[in-house]
Amino acid sequence: MDETLDGKLAFAKTEATDISMLPKRLVRRPHMFQIVEGDIPPRTIPLTRDTMVVGRSNQADVRIMTADLSRMHMRVERTRRGFKCIDLGSRNGVYVNHVRVRSAILRDGDHVQLGNVVLMYHEGS
Q1: Three-class DSSP category at 69
Q2: Which end of the chain has fewer CB atoms within 10 angstroms, the N or the C?
Q3: What is the DSSP letter of 116?
Q4: In sequence order, what are the residues at sequence separation of 6 or more whose Cβ sits closer than 8 angstroms to the Cβ of residue 22?
């Protein structure tokens, strides 16, 4: 910025000719769960579909092999407000941030407990 004769600030003319520093495409990170506790190895579970079932069954979209989980323990589905977790009548229940729920809209950083397994939810970008 330069000062004019009357004391006001004026912006210098600039040209934007080099846009090579702009990214060629935006990299998007999917919504995901991260296993942070339990008797299974830690891993990341991307939520790539609109509806996914978590449980021990071969038919579950996300298989977590621990005796504390029901065969079809929880459904995760995309809604207009974000991802929602729904208890499918599991024996040990679904807890979001230490509160037992039948269903709940998930927010970034929420902890979802299924038996002895704790998943941390991460919103995508």
Answers
A1: coil
A2: N
A3: T
A4: none
Compute, in degrees rounded to 10, the torsion defined by CA atoms 61, 62, 65, 66: -120
**Average pLDDT per block of 10 residues along the chain, 125 residues long:** 60 57 66 93 93 97 94 96 96 97 97 96 89
Q: What is the pLDDT of residue 124?
A: 83
In whole angstroms, give the CA distance from residue 33 to residue 120.
Answer: 5
With the C-alpha atoms ordered 38, 41, 44, 45, is the resulting torsion angle positive or negative?
Answer: negative
The confidence score (pLDDT) of residue 21 equals 60
Please, are residues 113 and 94 in contact by the beta-carbon 8 Å criterion?
A: yes
Type of residue at 85: C
pLDDT given for residue 20 in this prediction? 58
Nearest to 83 by CA among 117, 45, 57, 55: 45
The residue assigned the tokens 């038919």 is 59
